[in-house]
Amino acid sequence: MSHRVALRFHDDDRGKPVVGIADTASALNPCNIGFSRLIPEVERGIRDAGGVPARFPVMSLGEDLMKPSAMLYRNLVAMELEETVRANPLDGVVYLANCDKSVPASIMAAVTTNLPSLLLLGGARSAPHFDGKPLGTGTDLWRALDKRRAGRMDDADWLGLERTLACAGPGACNTMGTASTMAIMTEVLGMSLPGTAGLAAIGDELVAAAYETGVAVTTAILRDERPDVRLTQIALDNAVRALAAVAGSTNAIIHLAAIAGRLGLDAGLARMDHLWRDIPLLADVEPSGTGLIHDFRRDGGVPSLVAAMGDQFDTTALAGDGETWAVAVAAAPEPSGVIHTRANPVAAGPTLAAVFGSLAPTGAVIKTAAATPSLIIHTGRAIVFDDYADMRERLDDPGLDVDANDVIVVRNCGPAGVPGMPEWGMAPIPKRLVEQGVTDMVRISDGRMSGTSFGTVVLHVSPESAVGGPLGLVEDGDLIELDVPGRRLGLLVDDDELERRRALAHPSPPRHLRGWPKIYAEHVQQAPDGCDLDFLAALTPESRRFIEPVVGRS
Known about the structure:
This protein has helices at residues 2-6, 35-48, 71-87, 102-113, 139-149, 155-166, 178-188, 204-223, 227-230, 233-245, 251-263, 269-276, 293-298, 301-309, 325-330, 388-394, 431-435, 495-504, 515-523, 541-544; strands spanning 18-23, 52-57, 92-97, 117-121, 129-130, 133-134, 353-357, 360-366, 377-385, 407-410, 442-445, 457-462, 479-483, 488-491. It is α/β, with parallel strands linked by helices and 554 residues long. The chain folds into four domains: 2-126 and 170-330, 3-Layer(aba) Sandwich (Rossmann fold), CATH 3.40.50; 129-166, no CATH class; 353-504, 3-Layer(bba) Sandwich (Glucose Oxidase, domain 1); 515-539, no CATH class. Helix 3 packs parallel to helix 4, helix 4 packs parallel to helix 11 (251-263) and helix 7 packs antiparallel against helix 10.
């Protein structure tokens, strides 16, 4: 009785499933702010399907304002969701998520609690025109920043860009950034309804998707259809391949590894690299292409992408509506527009690669689709910056001894070192070189980069500097060898010299002495393992009984 009273049940609600709505809407997060208008539609769908909706608030993660990075709080939100769902009488959940870290946090919680659930994604912001073309959020800003640093964009043009960006409205980035990438991954994994990735943040289609998601989760409860039936190794491998087919954000590599860790599945870098090798680029979307995510959705979205992938995608896997992907593909438009066929790809594969070697013993990643082909085999002098602040202070110093053949190293940007692994890996090209027309250099970091970024950037170097990785031993002038076809990243310094340097190295004092950052830094795993906390990953049958949710139906 107390449950019914607390939930304000009516007499005709007795026996109906209780469906939680995890609400991440926030005025501090423009990507997620639009959920406020969608919640009534989710609730209507739940009631029409025979359920009782119960909205609850969740910390909202957005990259625009959170410092040093929303990534620091992904695991915290996954914990918050897990504990809220476990502790309350819920039978299923609709997770409202959009900006990149809220999406993997929701999936991590959903697969851990294993209640019937789906994500409702909040859609992409509009693309107002600037400089004669639709504005790709993120990617076009990076390009404009280089123009400004080179003196080709004055204050008036810069202010015009700012005002145009402000007109884009709510929603996630409209390029193949991390949010759009994770929307596609979510759909491929069967954690959102097919055809919903890439919807416009404003419009009737998203309103309809909100209603249908409420219906679908309630129906899944009545049928006892849970995430572990959909999210299998086959589904995970499909997502890894689809990531390559769209040349998605390298951040998705970490998120997929974290999800796999919760399920005991294999998303190791060696497996991913094997799956990527023969996947061509099929989505002509910025930053590796020319279109926007709206074009991708218009031209058929994920179902048409899956159709284009052919036998590189296992269509026996289940989509979010409970049907196999074969059913969604049969109803999908033929690949066209920005979605290319394998016979006519945007570019040959691989679009992503993992590299290993003396500088990255447990691996690093590079988005080859966004790199300069002449730089994927390169040896150059290291120009070392000890952290992001050092890089920002010295990078544009006219006296910096650097040329286009050098390799920029930015370290102490990893999961434990900051903590939170911010998107600091794509160091800008030094201003003096930008003014000379240099547009790319090899850059190496133990940090991440925005999915909207581009260039020959090696990321997620592991182990990171802060935990004793060899990146911390690099000195100015050392030769670094990058060989993407050979999957190698080497520091060309002999072992005796490295041992000498290691003996002289002193661990840095912890940056945080209290609160969540302290817990995070002490327990976060390295990038190849998904940057989850060590006590949250790899559930065992013994530990699972401690997270079984309270039965909600009255």
